[in-house]
Write a structure and sequence with these properties.
- By secondary structure, this protein is α/β, with parallel strands linked by helices.
- The chain folds into three domains: 192 residues, HAD superfamily/HAD-like (Rossmann fold), CATH 3.40.50.1000; 164 residues, HAD superfamily/HAD-like (Rossmann fold); 134 residues, no CATH class.
- Helices cover 37% and strands 11% of the residues.
- A six-stranded parallel β-sheet has the order 1-13-10-9-7-8, with helices on both faces.
- A hairpin with a 2-residue loop joins β3 and β4.
- α13 packs antiparallel against α16 and α14 packs across α16.
- The two termini are 54 Å apart.
- The N terminus and C terminus are likely disordered.
- One of its GO terms (molecular function) is hydrolase activity.
- Keywords: Hydrolase, Membrane, Transmembrane, Transmembrane helix.
- It comes from Jaminaea rosea.
- One of its GO terms (biological process) is glycerophospholipid biosynthetic process.
Length: 523
C-alpha cells in the first residue's frame, strides 16, 4: 500500500524573517524593482564536498557588481543540506566564497521547520539526525527556532540502553535535565537532518509511532494502531541522492525515508503518513521567495533563476514555482551520460559561472527587445571558450571578404564586365549542391542545400538549439546602396548601385555569410 503524504497546512504561515535574521542586505537596496535575482543550490553548484569550485568565485564576482548592470544582483542560497545554524553556515560560506554572505541569504532544509513552532513549540518532540559535534548542537538550533522541549535519539538510547544494544550512547549528547521518559508523551517526530545511525534511528522511530499515547517503551495493539491517528512525522527534505567530493553520489535523507517507510509497512501493515519539506516542496520555495522579497525592499524581482545540479529537487521545484531554471552538468548530481533529465530546465550549462552569465545576457537582451522573453526560449547549450575562438576566426574571414568585395566594386574593369559575370555567378551559385546566400533588401538568409541546424557536437542536451544572437556570428545587415539609380529587384538581387557594383557586393556578402554560417556550424 502506497505511503501517504501529508501536505503543509495552509495555516502554517512563514515566520517573520526579521525575527530570525536581524541584519539587512546591502544588495539591491534601491527602491527600484530588481530586474533579476538568483537562488543557488550549494553542494554540486558552489562546492564539491569541502572544496569550493573556482567557477563559484567568478559567478559571485558578477553578482557583486562585475556585470553589465554595474550593480549588485540579489541572490540567496537554497540547500537541502544543513546541520548547523544559518549564522554559522553564513560565516563559513563567507570565508570559503570570499564574499560576505548574510544569514538571511541562507535557506537550509531545516530552516522551514520554524513554521511548525505554533504547533509544537511547547510540546515534547523527538528530533532525529544531524551532526554530533558540537555536543547538543542540533538541540540548540531547534531551541533557537522556537522548540522548547526537544529530545534526541541520544536521550532515548541513554535512558534505555537495551533499546539499541549494538552501540553505546554518547553521554555528552544527552539532555542535561533529562526527565523520566515514562512520563513524556511525544507529540511529533522531526527528522532534522541526515541520520548518522540508520539502524538505531529507524528502531526508535518505529517504537515511538507504535507507542501508546507517544510514551517510549509502550506498544499499541494492531487494532489500536488502525483506529487512531499516527503521530505526525516530518522530514526536512526528500533528496534521494546528493553529491560531494566522492566520485559516486551518496544516499540522502530521501533514501532514509524510503528505508524507514518499508520497515514501518512490513512491521505494522500500515501506510506511513509523513510530511516532507525542502526542495522541491512548495513551502520551501514560498519561504525562499519571501527572503528575496525582503532583500529587495518588499518587491518581487522581475525574474528569478534557480541554479542547481539535481533535476528532481532544484529543477522540479523551480519550474513548479514559476522560476527560470539552470541545470549544471559537470559539477554535481546530474551528468550528461544520464540522458535527458526528467524535469526539463530552461537551459543546461557546464557550471554556475556560465549559468549566471547566460541568465544576465538573456534578461538584458529581453529588456532590449532583441529576443523573445526567456520563458519562451528553447533549452540551449552555452558556448565554450573553444567555440568562441572559432566564431572570432570566422567573423574575421567574413570581414576580409566583405572588404575585398567592396574594393573590387570600385574597379572600372569590374564595372565593365559585371553584366556577364552577374549571369554566370547567379547560375553557378544555384547549380551547386551547397546553400546559396541571397541578399534581399537589408537582410540576409540562407536557401536550401546545407541546413542550418545545430551540429550534434555543439550540444550536450537533446534537441538543443543555439540562437545566433548569443554568439555574435550572424551576418550584419547589408548596407543600403548609395549609387545613382538605386532600385529594388527580385530575389537574388540587391540594390542596383550604378554600373554592376552590386553584383560584386552581393557575391562578396553572400560568400561572407556562407563562411560565417559554415564556420559556426563546424565549430
Amino acid at each position: 500500500m502506497a505511503a501517504l503524504r501529508r501536505t503543509a497546512a495552509s495555516a502554517w504561515r512563514l515566520p517573520s524573517l526579521a525575527r530570525s535574521f536581524t541584519s539587512s542586505s546591502s544588495i539591491a537596496s534601491s527602491s527600484r524593482r530588481p530586474p533579476l535575482a538568483f537562488a543557488f543550490d550549494i553542494d554540486g553548484v558552489l562546492k564539491a564536498g569541502p572544496r569550493v569550485l573556482p567557477q563559484a568565485l567568478s559567478a559571485l564576482r558578477m553578482l557583486h557588481g562585475d556585470n553589465p548592470y554595474k550593480s549588485q544582483i540579489p541572490y540567496i542560497l537554497v540547500t537541502n543540506g544543513g546541520g548547523v545554524s544559518e549564522e554559522d553556515r553564513a560565516a563559513r560560506l563567507s570565508k570559503e566564497l570570499q564574499h560576505p554572505i548574510q544569514p538571511h541569504q541562507v535557506l537550509q532544509a531545516h530552516t522551514v521547520l520554524q513554521s511548525l513552532t505554533k504547533l509544537y513549540g511547547d510540546k515534547p518532540i523527538l528530533v532525529i539526525g544531524g551532526p554530533d559535534k558540537p555536543p547538543g548542537g542540533v538541540r540548540g538550533i531547534m531551541n533557537e527556532y522556537g522548540f522548547n522541549d526537544v529530545y534526541t535519539a541520544h536521550d532515548l538510547h541513554h535512558s534505555f540502553p537495551a533499546s539499541w544494544p549494538f552501540t553505546r550512547a554518547s553521554p555528552d549528547q544527552v539532555r542535561s535535565n533529562l526527565p523520566d521518559l515514562s512520563s513524556v508523551h511525544f507529540s511529533a517526530i522531526i527528522v532534522f537532518h541526515d541520520s548518522r545511525d540508520w539502524g538505531r534511528d529507524i528502531q526508535l522511530m518505529v517504537d515511538i509511532l507504535r507507542s501508546r499515547d507517544g510514551v517510549f517503551g509502550t506498544e499499541s495493539s494492531p487494532a489500536e494502531l488502525k483506529k487512531r491517528e499516527q503521530i505526525p512525522l516530518y522530514f526536512s527534505h526528500g533528496d534521494l541522492l546528493w553529491g560531494n567530493d566522492f566520485p559516486v553520489v551518496r544516499f540522502g535523507q530521501g533514501a532514509f525515508r524510503v528505508a524507514f517507510s518499508n520497515v514501518w509497512q512490513k512491521t505494522t501493515g500500515l501506510p506511513l503518513e509523513y510530511t516532507v519539506f525542502g526542495k522541491p516542496e512548495k513551502l520551501t520555495f514560498e519561504y525562499a521567495a519571501e527572503m528575496l522579497r525582503e532583500m529587495c525592499g518588499g518587491q518581487d524581482p522581475a525574474k528569478v533563476y534557480m541554479v542547481g545540479d539535481n533535476p528532481e529537487s532544484d529543477i522540479r521545484g523551480g519550474r513548479d514555482f514559476g522560476w527560470e531554471t539552470a541545470l549544471v552538468s559537470k559539477t554535481g548530481v546530474y551528468r550528461e551520460a544520464q540522458g535527458e533529465p526528467k524535469y526539463r530546465p530552461s537551459f543546461v550549462v557546464d557550471d554556475v559561472e556560465v549559468a549566471v552569465r547566460e541568465a544576465i545576457e538573456r534578461e538584458m537582451e529581453a529588456r532590449r527587445g532583441d529576443i523573445a522573453p526567456s520563458s519562451s526560449r528553447p533549452v540551449t547549450m552555452i558556448f565554450t571558450p573553444r567555440s568562441m575562438v572559432g566564431h572570432a576566426v570566422t567573423l574575421l574571414l567574413a570581414l576580409v571578404l566583405i572588404t575585398s568585395s567592396l574594393v573590387a566594386a570600385q574597379s572600372p574593369t569590374t564595372a565593365a564586365t559585371s553584366s556577364s559575370s552577374n549571369a554566370a555567378s547567379s547560375s553557378s551559385g544555384s547549380a551547386s549542391g551547397n546553400s546559396t546566400a541571397t541578399v534581399s533588401g537589408n537582410s540576409t538568409s540562407t536557401a536550401s542545400g546545407n541546413a542550418t541546424s545545430t551540429s550534434t557536437t555543439l550540444s550536450q542536451y537533446p534537441t538543443a538549439s543555439i540562437p545566433a544572437s548569443l554568439d555574435g556570428s550572424a551576418a550584419a545587415p547589408a548596407p543600403a546602396a548609395t549609387g545613382g539609380g538605386g532600385s529594388k529587384s527580385g530575389p537574388g538581387d540587391s540594390y542596383i548601385a550604378g554600373a554592376g557594383q552590386t553584383r560584386q557586393m552581393a557575391v562578396g556578402l553572400g560568400g561572407s555569410v556562407l563562411v560565417a554560417v559554415g564556420g559556426w556550424l563546424i565549430v
